[in-house]
Amino acid sequence: LVDYQAALGIEQLSKLGVILERQKKIALAYMQAVQNSRLETYFSNPTEDTFHRFPIIIYNQGYEEVQRYFKSIHIGTKRTIEEPLHSVLEENKQDYPNAERLFQRGHCIPVYPNLTKDNVQRIATAIRRIY
Fold it and tell me: Buried b vs exposed e over 13-25: b needs ≥16 C-beta within 10 Å?
């Protein structure tokens, strides 16, 4: 770890409370968008959960289709997990339905604390439009 990285880390730690509070507000907007849809998220309580990532599960469309949708409106998403552990271990995916569902249907949407209110609103609207 070089001195510059250490100094950057110390500065970021001094802003940790602000960053976490901002991420909670963003996640709350997303939770409200998910609430009135057919989508699912694993978060339920913004006062207890931390929001390093915000996964949504989409049942009625394939992963690639939803990925193209988000890309077309310039919203970067990622898979919730790159490869399930049971696949790496060559286990039967029938034995791990939750991990398989998360891999096949899960998208992580941005919760960066520097998103503007307009960005958050645009992403929340995009979530509501997925059916």
Answer: eeeeeeeeebbbb
